[in-house]
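Hi support team,

I've been running sequence recovery on a batch of backbones for a student project. Most finish fine, but this one hangs at about 90% for roughly twenty minutes before it completes. I'm not sure whether the input is malformed or the queue is just slow. I've pasted the structure tokens below so you can try to reproduce it. Let me know if you need the job ID as well.

Thanks,
M.K.
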């Protein structure tokens, strides 16, 4: 079950690519998605963010005109928890400790499809451990009231 509160930022200069990825995420029940098309917007949203973005999915070429290496850019942004950079000739996966949470940094040669997004989201969107316990305590309370 997906966490409806995850904040996802999509960044690509190609509008049709943004729509495609957003639709794939919607199919997986993720809807808090902010699509942006310029590096300036990416800078603005990630430099002074008051809330953390749970995931940034970004085309590596977005930073090229500005001489920016997207991997380094993302590492320097504390308001981005997980990152998928596509358009990279060297695919990689890196897990790093980030403010007591495991962060995922992944690079892909191609834009993500629904299968790769599903796998990525299963790694990022872990169920809360105590959700089952809260549900059980609620059920116990309801059972006692019914007696």
């Amino acid at each position: 079950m997906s966490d409806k509160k995850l904040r996802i930022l999509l960044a690509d200069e190609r509008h049709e690519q943004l729509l495609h990825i957003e639709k794939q995420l919607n199919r997986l029940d993720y809807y808090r998605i902010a699509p942006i098309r310029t590096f300036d917007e990416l800078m603005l949203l990630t430099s002074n963010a008051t809330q953390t973005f749970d995931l940034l999915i970004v085309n590596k070429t977005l930073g090229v005109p500005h001489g920016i290496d997207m991997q380094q850019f993302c590492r320097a942004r504390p308001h981005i928890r997980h990152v998928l950079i596509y358009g990279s000739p060297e695919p990689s996966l890196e897990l790093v400790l980030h403010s007591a949470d495991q962060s995922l940094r992944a690079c892909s040669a191609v834009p993500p499809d629904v299968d790769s997004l599903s796998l990525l989201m299963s790694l990022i969107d872990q169920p809360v451990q105590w959700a089952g316990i809260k549900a059980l305590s609620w059920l116990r309370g309801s059972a006692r009231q019914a007696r």
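--
Follow-up from support: It reproduced on our side and the slowdown came from queue contention, not your input. The CA atoms of residues 55 and 89 lie 21 Å apart. No action needed from you.
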